[in-house]
Amino acid sequence: MKRTDSNLGGFSSGAALGGILLHYRQKQVIYTQGAPADYLYYIQKGGVRLTCRAKHQTSAVTVILGVGELFGELCLAGYPLRMSKAVTLTDSSIRAIKKEEMLQLLRNKNETSNRLVAYLLSSVQRYRDQVADLLTFSADQRLAQVLLRLAHLDKRSPPVVEIPKLSHQVLAEMVGTSRPRINVFMNRFRKQGFINYDGGLEVHQSVRKVLRRR
């Protein structure tokens, strides 16, 4: 159900990336902000939430990641310490790849390294898009965009994609608004047929209508 051009889901086992496969429980901390950054990680099963906290400020969710995605990749750019905290959303299987191994893999200039470079470049664009959303979209439009990204929905994707249900507090931190406002928006989206709750959370392509509103 996920797009292969915005993640690395084509590596079904992840073995091509090397490293070691680790297993985590739900809500288990993978690393903390400020910890040494010696590894990056590839999600084979489950999901991960990244949060960032400035001094004397509450934590903010920066991104939710799922199967086929990397995180901790800033170590490749020479960052010695973690810029965020990583916590699992569910029981997860995650491949830990030493920074030096990944750098060598990128130097090989083969299909695997080409896909990795394309993924890393798309990640940069994704973060830029998120900043632009904060500056130009209203809160309900930012929520719609978050739901589309979590479901990896674009115009070529299926009409409906199910994602793990997230708490409204987590969504509020991602959108940059309060939990009560998220409650209002989510109820409105459900009444309009943009989303549906049934165990998981179904996100419909029709939620794009919120983004087209001016």
Q: Brief description of this entry?
A:
The chain has 214 residues and is α+β, with helices and mostly antiparallel strands. It is built from 6 helices and 11 strands.
Question: What features would you describe in this structure?
Answer:
- The chain is of the alpha+beta class.
- It has two domains: 15-132, Jelly Rolls; 137-212, Winged helix-like DNA-binding domain superfamily/Winged helix DNA-binding domain (Arc Repressor Mutant, subunit A).
- 34% of the residues lie in helices and 24% in strands.
- The chain is built from six helices and eleven strands.
- The chain has helices at residues 99-107, 111-136, 139-150, 168-175, 179-191, 208-212, and strands at 20-24, 29-31, 39-45, 48-52, 60-65, 70-71, 85-88, 92-98, 160-163, 195-198, 200-204.
- A four-stranded antiparallel sheet has the order 1-8-3-6.
- Helix 3 crosses helix 4 (168-175) and helix 4 (168-175) crosses helix 5 (179-191).
- The chain is globular.
